[in-house]
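Q: I'm writing a short explainer about DUF3224 domain-containing protein for a general audience and would like to include a description of its predicted shape. Could you first generate the structure from this sequence?
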Amino acid sequence: MGTVVRIPFEVTGWEPEPLDLGGDGPVAFSRVTLRKTFSGPMTGGSVVAMTAAAVGETPAGYVAVEHVTGTLDGRAGSFVLQHSGVVDGTAQAARGVVLPGTATGELAGLRGTVELTHEADGAVLVLDYEVG
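A: Of course. Here's the predicted structure. Afterward I'll give you a sentence or two in plain language.
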């Protein structure tokens, strides 16, 4: 798409609450509010509203919207990401998009795609974006 940046992040808050969707079996559902702090090419933080399905202690999948506020490559503003992921054993695949029309400030017009990975040295958000 355009500029690709690798943005390390840390989860600084995790507030789960059970979600009763009915049914039975090994799957447990929850609604989670979590907070992240970003460093590197993007500094700032986010608040995430996530719905997850888990088998035991391990999330099997999630869908989320994330409100990001900060500075991306020197431009200040905010935007919303929408992403989802699947955990299969130790592998995790999470991908999403910048929601069109949600960017503010110097980031107005931001569009792009996102991939979230968990690597040996920590969590990384890979953002492929354009502004304008």
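A: For your explainer, you could say: Residues 58 and 90 are 10 Å apart (CA to CA).
Q: Perfect, that's easy to follow.
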